[in-house]
Amino acid sequence: MQPLIDAITWVLNNLYLFTKNIGLPSYALAIILLTILIKILLYPLNHAQMKSMKAMQELQPKMQEIQNKYKNDPQKQQQALMELYKEHGVNPMSGCLPLLIQFPILIALYRALYAFKYLNPAHAKFFWIANISHKDPYFILPLLAALTTYVQSKMSMASSNNDPNQKIMLYFMPLMIGWIAMSLPAGLGIYWVVLNIMNIIQQYFVNKSTHTIGERGTK
User: Fold this and answer.
1) pTM across the whole model
2) For residue 112, how many C-alpha atoms fall within 13 Å in the half-sphere facing its CB?
3) pLDDT tens per residue, range 73-121
4) Which domain holds residue 109?
5) What is the count of structural domains for the chain?
6) What span, in angstroms and rounded, lies between the C-alpha atoms of 178 and 188?
7) In 123-160, which positions are buried (b, 16+ CB within 10 angstroms) versus exposed (e)?
């Protein structure tokens, strides 16, 4: 992980120097810019992931029908599901790659912030937080992380989905994210909240395009 940690540190320091050059010296702003850059780089993968997840949610009733129809024949069940995915252009594995890429970035940012050598520690402040390497003393960022995670998860779910497991995850995941964020550096909370906000915006347009396609298909 050290090369990635060093890379994150180098990018953050250079983004900080950029904020300094434009008259807004702030490591928190540097993290926001870093988040935007990562989002831009991962946009195609995230877009494919969101479209696939939304399509999977919409296909839940048909998937349930196939599972019930071939419950005693796993081979036919799997074949019918694959045909359903192919018919609707869905790849059930497309959601894995963005998560696999994001995980080491989160770990590297976490490690970098804990031992960060700020060029100017005075500019590591973020509103009510004295230093973004410290925890949020008022838990505002963890609360925002949980709230934005919930909103994004809710938007990715099909309105007709009555799966109790999905509903449990809808509430469990935000609570878990918020609880974890309480013990992490505030800089990581900033990254997560900003990333979630951008994901929510992207999910809105994905949902809109999905609905448009569905409406065209019924005409």
Assistant:
1) 0.84
2) 24
3) 888 888 888 888 888 777 776 656 667 778 888 899 999 998 899 999 9
4) 2-218
5) 1
6) 12
7) bbebeebebbbebbeeeebbbbbbebbbbbbebbbbee
